[in-house]
Amino acid sequence: MNNYSRFKMSVPGFIKGVKRNNLFLIFTAFHFFVIFMVCFKSLVHTINTTLITKNRDDKTKVENIIGSVLSTTAINFYGTYSGTINPYGYFAPNVASSYIIEFSCFNEKNKLVSKFILPPFKRVESVNRYSALLGNFQEILRDLDNHKPKKKDEIGLKYLNVVIKAMSKGLVNKNKGTYKVKSILFLYDQPTIDSFRIKNNAKLILLKSYEAS
Amino acid sequence: MRHLKSSGSGLDLLSKIKADIERERNTDYYFAPFFRVLVGLFCMLHFLSIISDFQVLYGKNGFVPSEVGELFKGYGILGFSEFSKLAFSAFGLNEAGSIILFKILYLFFSLSLALGFLTRLSALFLLILQITLAKGASLYTYGVDNFTTIALFYCMVFPLNRRFSIDSLIFKLKPTSISKYRKILQIHLCFIYFFSGFEKALGENWWNGESIWKALTMPILGNHSYDFSFLATWSVLPTVIGWSVIVIELAYPFFIFRKSTSKYWLAMVVSMHIGILLFLNLYFFSAIMIILNISAFLNLSKEEVGKAKIV
């Protein structure tokens, strides 16, 4: 048997046996490597910010290193399409605060026409999605908490302002007779169990207001 | 000598693990059709749940216009506005037309995945469409989207078309070992719950009941058909629920694999998600978590499923 025919015979076996198993193992190892890195980074962040520095913006070296690995184009792409790029600390370490945007529509005589907090959604699931959108406004609260935003956060804050303005402008354009929309972002200040017991109810704390006409 | 012995036992352990992974388990017999059909139907129902609000959520003139909502989408993600542009350049469709096309494609691929018709291709296209909404308009994204992506990715990677599928009839596919793939899903769930529980355990409010209280009395998310003010009087209740959530999640990897505790742990996790479904209005988040859990750990042997049929 010459080398060529030996090679020819070995190919199908190689593909069926060794290659398939190895591919499976390589895929599994890589898959769990990404999952572990994402989870570990999130855990390090939570430990650091809840137990050590108590500052949500602080990042450890470990986080930065893992973050730079995970943000490489290939891993980020894989993570996005496999659902492994997001950490799993839902409602952790604590349940986040809630936010409400109140939209007030005025006519050309500056008379209040309508006031609402929920867009015209028909389904509960859409309301859940809107609630997820409102969760993004946590950044604005952090900004108002006398914290100097980093450059990256500044872009995020500007973006959130653009989002509210776009929503308000959309209401002006879509509703006939509406000339001005005032949008107010509130923090829904939920009482703790103890303060609820002494008859303290939920309060709305004004964070920012916007106008579009 | 000792060194050789220890490396030998190390190899033994490795080969044992490898053999365990490779072993075809009777309990996994119906895993492929079970997981595929549930994920396909879930995607269909989840999409139908927002279909009437689709334009308001993702459209060019939506509540948040798509151009603004898609501003920070990541690399390699197709936003809905790009999908619209593609539909326009390929078929001359305007936005309303591209919304209809998107809806048809999403529902078609969900159904074809459930039926096992061109399974992997259907899962791939459905995944692309799902990511278009979930990552394209990431402002609206929450937990359910991430888990749907995970489920669809596994539908694309795992050989789920070998049993009870149209593919197996058309292409005369032979059944293949599915156990090692199910193992991946099981281990992934262990990561999910362990790290989720660990991070919760670090939050003071999960120990004193405040997190449960806060979640249940949220202004938009909470289910306001119930009045939870009694929890302030019986504050031990939210505290115990908070502890239970931490224990269930943190100990998940340790008890879900044990034969003696697996059933009970699965029941507890499913109950926890039913609680989230009922009291937080997160129907679809809970549904996908229940689907992932029962697909991963329910006994899906011929005998068990046969018994269920008789009952």
Tell me what you see in this structure:
The complex is a heterodimer of chains A (213) and B (311). Chain A has helices at 3-52, 61-70, 73-82, 124-135, 138-144, 151-174, 193-197, and strands at residues 98-106, 112-116, 180-189, 203-212. Chain A is 55% helix and 16% strand. With 213 residues, chain A is α+β, with helices and mostly antiparallel strands. Chain A has 7 helices and 4 strands; from the N terminus they run H-H-H-E-E-H-H-H-E-H-E. The longest helix of chain A is centred in the first third of the chain and has 50 residues, at 3-52. The N and C termini of chain A lie far apart (85 Å). Chain A is globular, with a radius of gyration of 26 Å. Chain A has a 4-stranded antiparallel β-sheet with strand order 2-1-3-4. Chain B is mostly helical and 311 residues long. Chain B is 71% helix and 0% strand. Chain B has 18 helices and no strands. In chain B, helix 5 (80-91) packs across helix 6 and helix 16 runs antiparallel to helix 17 (283-297). The longest helix of chain B is centred in the middle third of the chain and has 23 residues, at 179-201. In chain B, 45% of the residues are buried. Mean pLDDT of chain B is 90; it is low at 1-6. At the A-B interface, helix 1, helix 3, helix 4, helix 6 and helix 7 of A face helix 8, helix 10, helix 11, helix 12 and helix 13 of B.
Notable traits:
heterodimer, A: 213 residues, alpha+beta, 4-stranded antiparallel sheet, 55% helix, disordered N terminus, B: 311 residues, mainly alpha, 71% helix
